[in-house]
Amino acid sequence: TGGRVKSISLDPREGGVTHMYGGMSAITLPAGYLGSSLIGALLIFCGFNIVASKVASIVLGVCFLLTLWWARRDWLTIVTVLLAVGLLVACWFIKHAEPLRFVVLFIGVMSALYSVWDIVVHLIIHRSTTDHKQCDDLILRKVNESDASVFAQRYGGSSQCWGVIWSIISLIFMVGGIIAGIAAFPETFAE
After folding, report:
1. Which of 64, 103, 157, 188 has its CA 20 to 30 A from that of 58?
2. What is the pLDDT of residue 162?
3. How distant, in Å, are the alpha carbons of 32, 67, 70, 143, 181 from that of 4?
């Protein structure tokens, strides 16, 4: 969007933050949540067909392996990525790659529901506990500003409102992926 990244900081417990200047913040601020949902919807769409699932698994496998470049010192990430790639490869050889569809669908649903989970579950946790450290940064502002709170400051509304809107959009993406998958890859009742 024409912006420049100054720095990226990762927190293994909560995610991270990207410091940038320029660009179109109306697109970049919700991109983590909505981008994950859109990718999830595409994976859900692919999960309705074996050939599409194979293509999606190749893309996923390459992305997983590229992750190793940035995580080469973290043994847990290395093992997890290798196990994920191994699962994708193994599914290619099991029963004409039928299980691959379900792995791609699972990853798609998890990606599509990320923002919904991040908002709703953490809001429920906050209401059921007094430990404010467990609260999500999207709905309840922590020391670090969330994407939603920055979005609300720049474009109006509240961070809670934008969090709910982004969750609804995420659900729409997921439902769209399901409907498109069913429409594009119709199967008989027996299949």
Report:
1. 188
2. 86
3. 16, 22, 20, 24, 36
